[in-house]
């Protein structure tokens, strides 16, 4: 797992060989330990170079080993042996040096990087900290403030930034390995002590305590309950305040707390789940391994409203040429201004040139005739979308893919109005579409594997986490959101305030609670959907009492709020009061409290004390329950798909792994018992009835999440 060669007569070349990313498995660690010992003992060898096979230095510790009993040589003494040795060691960094990989390079005396390489300590994103000396060596190399930034965020830096920060000594456009071998020969005989990072003092600003306190406050706010970022600050503090060995001791202690935590398990699950959702399969037997995407070079976006603009920006940022289409010149001009401004703003942030040359605007649908793939992003209205799809079907070339950006409309109904239903798929982007990482790719019953593969591949090109889902109202994400929103409204009826509900959900780790989120999206969005569904407005069945619709409990509270002209952030009044229309600072509104009190009196509801546990359980267990139903219906392929949708699209805290992972952590029997309890208390709410899949899993002894697929009634039936 580590190859040993002697090159240029005196240089020992050690190559890590553990594809695809040369992770530091037990075998690799053993290989490094043995080859370094051999090189140190061999009198012919004057210096060493460590590199990785296949153009990747090292992706860090082998994350898959974390769930198993420890074996093989530990990393800390292995890296110490490299640093303490009396022969210079040069790391030749190509591709990536992440986590333990960078820590290995920091134990080397010199680092040479290829210009396309990236380095970083992403352990915090796995619920850990860099525990092979990274929290102690990096600050000693680059100083306290930049080390705090890199370690607490886990962000990767380019070779150029790494050079500026002082992480690497040289960057080359040529072979980093060749340069490293040359370099290793040149540095023989030069004093090694100053190159041993463990012997250095951490460069610190005058007010160390001030910097650490400020960083800790920022990190705590960002962490939303995650422990690892806080432990990272504590470990880096040790690098600034303690001698090296004591700092290493602190690093190990903090790691021991994180290593077996449920948060680390959740975040490592997310790491693998994110990759797993890219491997999709259909009930037809087609899957990502046997279905090729078709090359797409010309893309068009229809409609330059909020979603269309975001999608256009995302496509241009990915280097794709985009034809943006609007219905009239005025709308086109507005869209053009907005898209250009967004691209300029984005480029400015990255110190880059905006690729306005990739953009073309038109109001003439005939210009679409050579386009490979069209993303329709018009208003969320079935009749309008159908009209657009009919037109697209006649003007676009026969093999062009037609994609609809919809948050929940029936993809099959749209496909049916075209002459090519097999080339129609849904692409549910999340607002803002150029920022949000999630894309739900919706498989219609007639979508071809090639269409699915092409949409999934396009999502990847856009840097999205693309999840394949089946076609039903709301797909996976919004379908599960419905019972969540419903419970939140019921809680208001029963005695809660928007602040209480939001506070509980924010304490759980959401960036914002359900009512703040609704205010941000605009309360009229849901109002319109409810009107169309006959839940409010003129189409309501006159026999329905005010708090019942279509045979079940219904809360008209959000409708009544809209009727008061409260539309959310956009007009400065929603469930909260805002500093100004479009403002973001929410304050509790006494008039909402009064309105809720009057509503309860009017409907004869005696308010009761509601605690945070009830809020979390009723909102989240109802959502999770719908997740089990989506799995059983074959709308979601597996629990990982649901979890990635929620982590990347709905702000579910990553350190809780996603709703389905969380259910497993809480314990399926407990989720079942609590749902049964709430269902008994609220018999008129069918969403609280535990799903048959949840019952089957509990009856089968609550198997681990990776076994749930074996219990599905109709696996992949909608996919
Ligand atoms: C009392 C008890 C005390 C307990 C104390 C315990 C002490 C334990 C001591 C531990 C010491 C810790 C040392 C260190 O600080 C910890 C770490 O290093 S954690 C790992 C940090 N590294 C990362 O987070 C990098 C992760 N990988 C990536 O970012 C990317 O994979 C990449 C390297 C940039 C490559 O990207 P891509 O080319 O896009 O490829 P993929 O991402 O698709 O990956 C391909 C394939 O490889 C798998 N993989 C990637 N990295 C790892 C890894 N580090 N370990 C295992 N597997 C990895 C990935 O899952 C893909 O596999 P597939 O899904 O296709 O099967």
Automatic annotation (TrEMBL):
Q: How does it assemble?
A: Monomer.
Residues forming the 3-hydroxyacyl-CoA dehydrogenase NAD binding domain are: 298-471
Q: Localized where?
A: Peroxisome
According to its UniProt entry, the protein's GO biological process terms are: fatty acid beta-oxidation
Q: In which pathway does it act?
A: Lipid metabolism; fatty acid beta-oxidation
Q: Name one GO molecular function term.
A: NAD+ binding
Q: Which reaction does it catalyse?
A: (3S)-hydroxyhexanoyl-CoA = (2E)-hexenoyl-CoA + H2O; (2S,3S)-3-hydroxy-2-methylbutanoyl-CoA = (2E)-2-methylbut-2-enoyl-CoA + H2O; a (3Z)-enoyl-CoA = a 4-saturated (2E)-enoyl-CoA; (2E)-hexadecenedioyl-CoA + H2O = (3S)-hydroxyhexadecanedioyl-CoA
- Output the Gene Ontology cellular-component terms: peroxisome
Pfam families (UniProt xref): 3HCDH, 3HCDH_N, ECH_1
Q: What is this protein called?
A: Peroxisomal bifunctional enzyme
- InterPro entries reported in the protein's UniProt record: 3-OHacyl-CoA_DH_CS (IPR006180), 3-OHacyl-CoA_DH_NAD-bd (IPR006176), 3HC_DH_C (IPR006108), 6-PGluconate_DH-like_C_sf (IPR008927), ClpP/crotonase-like_dom_sf (IPR029045), Enoyl-CoA_hyd/isom_CS (IPR018376), Enoyl-CoA_hydra/iso (IPR001753), NAD(P)-bd_dom_sf (IPR036291)
Family under the similarity heading: Belongs to the enoyl-CoA hydratase/isomerase family.
Q: What sequence ranges are listed for the domain 3-hydroxyacyl-CoA dehydrogenase C-terminal?
A: 474-578, 615-702
Q: What are the boundaries of the region Disordered?
A: 534-555
Which keywords has UniProt assigned to this entry? Fatty acid metabolism, Isomerase, Lipid metabolism, Lyase, Multifunctional enzyme, NAD, Oxidoreductase, Peroxisome
List the PROSITE patterns: 3HCDH, ENOYL_COA_HYDRATASE
EC number(s) on record?
A: 1.1.1.35, 4.2.1.17, 5.3.3.8
Main localization is: other
């Amino acid at each position: 797992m580590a190859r040993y060669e002697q090159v240029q007569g005196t240089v020992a070349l050690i190559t890590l060989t553990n594809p695809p990313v040369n992770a530091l498995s037990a075998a690799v660690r053993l290989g490094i330990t043995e080859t370094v010992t051999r090189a140190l003992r061999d009198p012919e060898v004057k210096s060493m170079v460590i590199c990785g096979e296949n153009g990747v230095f090292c992706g860090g510790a082998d994350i898959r080993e974390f769930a198993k009993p420890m074996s093989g040589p530990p990393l800390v003494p292995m890296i110490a042996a490299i640093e303490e040795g009396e022969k210079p060691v040069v790391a030749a960094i190509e591709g990536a040096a992440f986590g333990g990989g960078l820590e290995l390079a920091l134990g080397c005396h010199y680092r040479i990087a290829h210009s396309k390489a990236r380095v970083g300590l992403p352990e915090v994103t796995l619920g850990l900290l860099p525990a092979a000396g990274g929290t102690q060596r990096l600050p000693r190399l680059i100083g306290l403030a930049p080390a705090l930034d890199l370690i607490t965020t886990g962000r990767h830096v380019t070779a150029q930034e790494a050079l500026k920060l002082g992480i690497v000594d040289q960057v080359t456009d040529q072979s980093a390995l060749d340069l490293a071998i040359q370099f290793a020969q040149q540095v023989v005989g030069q004093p090694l002590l100053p190159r041993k990072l463990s012997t250095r003092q951490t460069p610190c600003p005058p007010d160390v305590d001030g910097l650490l306190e400020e960083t800790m406050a920022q990190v705590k706010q960002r962490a939303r309950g995650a422990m690892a970022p806080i432990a990272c600050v504590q470990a880096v503090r040790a690098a600034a305040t303690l001698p090296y060995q004591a700092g290493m001791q602190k690093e190990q202690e903090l790691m021991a707390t994180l290593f077996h935590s449920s948060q680390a398990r959740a975040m490592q699950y997310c790491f693998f789940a994110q990759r797993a959702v890219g491997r999709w399969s259909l009930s037809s037997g087609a899957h990502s391994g046997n279905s090729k995407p078709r090359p797409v070079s010309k893309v068009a976006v229809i409609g330059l409203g909020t979603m269309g603009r975001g999608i256009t920006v995302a496509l241009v940022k990915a280097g794709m040429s985009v034809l943006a289409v609007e219905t009239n010149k005025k709308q086109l001009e507005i869209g053009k201004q907005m898209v250009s401004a967004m691209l300029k703003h984005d480029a400015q942030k990255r110190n880059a040139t905006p690729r306005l040359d990739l953009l073309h605007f038109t109001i003439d649908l005939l210009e679409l005739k050579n386009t490979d793939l069209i993303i329709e992003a018009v208003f969320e209205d079935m009749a309008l979308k159908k009209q657009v799809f009919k037109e697209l079907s006649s003007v676009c070339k026969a093999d062009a893919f037609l994609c609809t950006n919809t948050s929940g409309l029936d993809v099959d109904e749209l496909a049916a109005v075209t002459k090519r239903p097999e080339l129609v798929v849904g692409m549910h982007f999340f607002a803002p579409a150029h920022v949000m990482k999630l894309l739900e790719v919706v498989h219609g019953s007639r979508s071809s594997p090639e269409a699915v593969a092409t949409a999934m591949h396009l999502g990847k090109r856009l840097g999205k986490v693309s999840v394949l889902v089946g076609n039903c109202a709301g797909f996976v994400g919004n379908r599960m959101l419905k019972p969540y929103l419903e419970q939140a409204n019921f809680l208001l009826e029963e005695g809660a305030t928007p602040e209480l509900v939001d506070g509980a959900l924010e304490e759980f780790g959401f960036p914002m609670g359900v009512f703040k989120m609704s205010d941000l999206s605009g309360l009229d969005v849901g109002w319109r959907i409810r009107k169309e569904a006959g839940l409010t407005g003129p189409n309501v069945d006159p026999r329905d009492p005010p708090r019942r619709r279509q045979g079940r409990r219904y809360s008209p509270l959000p409708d009544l709020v809209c009727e008061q002209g409260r539309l959310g952030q956009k007009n400065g009044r929603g469930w909260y009061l805002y500093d100004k229309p479009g403002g973001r600072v929410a304050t509790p509104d006494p008039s909402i409290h009064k309105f809720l009190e009057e509503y309860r009196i009017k409907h004869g509801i005696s308010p009761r004390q509601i605690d945070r546990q009830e809020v979390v359980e009723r909102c989240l267990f109802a959502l999770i329950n719908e997740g089990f139903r989506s799995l059983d219906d074959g709308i979601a392929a597996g629990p990982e798909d649901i979890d990635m949708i929620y982590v990347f699209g709905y702000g579910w805290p990553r350190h809780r792994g996603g709703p389905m992972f969380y259910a497993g952590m809480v314990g399926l029997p407990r989720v079942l018992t609590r749902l049964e309890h709430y269902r008994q208390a609220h018999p008129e709410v069918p969403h609280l009835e535990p799903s048959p899949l949840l019952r089957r899993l509990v009856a089968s002894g609550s198997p681990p999440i990776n076994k749930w697929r074996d219990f599905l009634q109709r696996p992949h039936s909608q996919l």
